[in-house]
């Protein structure tokens, strides 16, 4: 494997000069020297050291992204949008999975700061944890004071640039659809209690219940983990406790698909006996049987907009840039009028 010294020797320059040219240092060199060094790099198939390039350049190139779990279809779609914009700008994306561990998120912020990333994007939900949110906000402010940029997706306690999906309205649309179909006995499969996303979506359901004169008792809400398995388990818990339920409202599509699986295993027809509705409109939602009625969030666009905020120099450094993202109901085959 060729070394920097080999390149310098082939180009007839000092290793320091070769390093400045290869690593993009702002220090001036003649065009003739640059061409000789780059020709030697090509001829010897030399691979530059990324850390050396970072030290030599006057600007940071990598972007850190903290998600709960990139294997989750929700975060996979958001990451697609993030990477699309980053790639268009020639940026490397470093993805960190926190698995909803607040301590790990704090550690990742420190780690990304140590790697001198140009920006950090928090793509996961905020937490109902005052101690954690205060610590996270403090670390992000320190990072910003060194020239780093921060953008968040969702509702967080950090005053900065944000892409905020209207989760409350999405929950309202979800419940309103079921009430308009005539459902009165609805079971809700919610996400983790500590997440602001869960709170906001539930708030929308409860607003719809009030407006339609219906009740949404605590006994009809089961908390799960935003995944298929826990969605199926929550559906079983709700149906065993309240066999008269005519609809299951899951606060994300993965849990809704778990509910569909549970109903199929019990021989319960959807939507003839029980309607099922999800949230997010992940790609698989249209491919399950029956096709899943859901609330759509433009996940890829949300990721793209967050990365754009992270990369663009704000015109006003005082006022945070907040981009609101609307939700819309997508009617498919998994919901219908109660029998």
Automatic annotation (TrEMBL):
Name of the protein in its database record: LacI family transcriptional regulator
Domain HTH lacI-type: 2-57
Domain of life: Bacteria
One term of GO molecular function: transcription cis-regulatory region binding
InterPro entries named in the record: HTH_LacI (IPR000843), LacI/GalR-like_sensor (IPR046335), Lambda_DNA-bd_dom_sf (IPR010982), Peripla_BP_I (IPR028082)
Record keywords: DNA-binding, Transcription, Transcription regulation
């Amino acid at each position: 494997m060729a070394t920097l010294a080999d390149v310098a020797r082939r180009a007839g320059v000092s290793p320091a000069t070769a390093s400045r040219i290869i690593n993009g240092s702002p220090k001036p060199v003649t065009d003739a020297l640059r061409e000789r060094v780059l020709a030697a790099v090509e001829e010897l198939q030399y691979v530059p050291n990324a850390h050396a390039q970072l030290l030599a350049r006057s600007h940071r190139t990598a972007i850190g992204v903290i998600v709960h779990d990139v294997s989750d279809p929700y975060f996979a779609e958001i990451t697609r949008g993030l990477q699309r914009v980053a790639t268009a700008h020639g940026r490397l994306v470093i993805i960190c999975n926190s698995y909803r561990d607040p301590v790990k998120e704090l550690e990742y912020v420190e780690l990304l700061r140590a790697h001198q990333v140009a920006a950090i994007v928090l793509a996961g939900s905020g937490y109902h944890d005052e101690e954690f949110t205060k610590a996270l906000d403090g670390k992000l402010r320190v990072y910003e004071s060194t020239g780093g940029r921060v953008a968040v997706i969702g509702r967080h306690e950090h005053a900065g640039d944000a892409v905020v999906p209207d989760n409350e309205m999405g929950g309202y649309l979800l419940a309103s659809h079921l009430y308009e179909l005539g459902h009165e006995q609805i079971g809700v499969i919610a996400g983790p209690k500590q997440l602001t996303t869960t709170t906001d979506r539930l708030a929308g359901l409860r607003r719809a219940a009030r407006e339609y004169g219906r009740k949404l008792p605590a006994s009809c809400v089961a908390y799960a983990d935003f995944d298929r398995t826990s969605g199926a388990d929550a559906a079983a818990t709700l149906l065993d406790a309240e066999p008269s339920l005519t609809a299951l409202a899951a606060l994300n599509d993965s849990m809704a698909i778990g509910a569909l699986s549970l109903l199929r295993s019990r021989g319960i027809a959807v939507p003839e006996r029980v309607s099922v509705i999800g949230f997010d409109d992940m790609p698989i939602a249209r491919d399950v049987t029956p096709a899943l009625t859901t609330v759509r969030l433009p996940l890829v666009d949300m990721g793209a907009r967050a990365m754009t905020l992270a990369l663009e120099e704000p015109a006003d450094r005082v006022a945070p840039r907040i981009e609101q993202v609307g939700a819309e109901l997508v009617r498919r085959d998994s919901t219908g009028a109660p029998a």
